[in-house]
Amino acid sequence: MNNSRRKFIKNSTLAVAGAALLPDLLFANEKKIERLGLQLYSVRVAMAKDPAGSLKKLADMGWVHVEHANYIDRKFYGYTAKEFKKLLADMSLQMPSGHTVMTAQDWDTAKGDFTDKWKYTIEDAAEAGQRYVISPWLDEKLRTDMDGLKRFMEQFNKCGELCKAHGMKFGYHNHNFEFSTMVGDHNLYDFILKNTDPNLVAQQMDIGNMLGAGGVAMDLLKKYPGRFELMHVKDEIKSDSGQGMDGYDSTILGQGVMPVKDILKEARKIGGTSQFIVEQESYQGKDPFDCVKIDLQIMKKWGY
């Protein structure tokens, strides 16, 4: 994930009744339903200028599922939840997951409850058709504050309960700092996994973000089997462009240094992974749409 993405996410802070008639919505069966999707940050410039046109291009390529990275003032790319769901449906697209940052300030300590702002966030996610609400950031002030972290992990679990009431699941998405930051004798990522209830908080492992900070996807899958319901699928190349993370830039799948195909196979086997979301943030001079079209072809070739 590049520096502009990090800045972006820092600044952007169905009912189950009748589900028996719609097996795809059954919460208990979520892990059994495998989906291949695209994180829309991969085409962020185009989405900012022309969301409808960009989604049409992706649908025409063959993408079926997308994951948003833009929810501001109760709008997805400028559309209300209801409007955006219709826009997606008109193009035969679905949005099973999305990224929205949850902060400690989203919990009202005095009331012992989430703020109205965060409750609306969850309601809008459900209205838009999401099954997962993923928070992709952790405030820098909390990262080495043991007491603050424990309270925040309790907030994670409480948000899991809130999402469950709306037929969804809460989740967390890693970057690099989780592996370079120590909390006692363990790194921050270990702390997060050990202090969240897997029945309430899903993990979306970003296999590329962790690379330069020492995180090894294969090792984590073996250390925490069944914990990674979602995965951000990336390949990485060594780069000094300054656009990536820890000396790496993302690239077209299969063209980098990562054993992506092997990681995906292991994720299917022991990771509990059913949601595979491609994200490419650097393009080495190529058009982003050309890149994600190739990424889709490669994932299909690999059997996804």
Describe the structure.
- The protein has 304 residues and is α/β, with parallel strands linked by helices.
- The chain has a single domain, classed as TIM Barrel.
- The chain contains 11 helices and 16 strands.
- The strands form 5 sheets. It has an 8-stranded parallel β-barrel, surrounded by 5 helices. The chain has a two-stranded antiparallel sheet with strand order 3-4.
- β8, α6 (146-165) and β9 (169-173) form a beta-alpha-beta unit.
- The radius of gyration is 18 Å and the shape is globular.
- The two termini are 23 Å apart.
Features:
two-stranded antiparallel sheet, 11 helices, 37% helix, globular
- Average pLDDT: 92
Please, how many domains?
1
CATH-defined superfamily:
Divalent-metal-dependent TIM barrel enzymes
Read across the widest sheet, the strand sequence of neighbours is: 1-2-5-8-9-12-13-16
How many helical elements?
11
Distance separating the two termini? 23 Å
Classify the fold: give the CATH topology: TIM Barrel
Strand content: 15-25%
Helix and strand element order: HEHHEEEHEEEHEHEHEEHEHEEEHEH
Q: Rg from C-alpha positions?
A: 18 Å
CATH class: Alpha Beta
How much helical structure, as a percent, in the residues?
25-40%
User: Which structural class is indicated by helix and strand composition?
Assistant: alpha/beta
Number of strands: 16
Spatial shape: globular
Largest sheet: 8 strands, parallel, barrel
- The CATH architecture would be Alpha-Beta Barrel
- Low-pLDDT residue intervals, each spanning 5 or more residues: 13-31
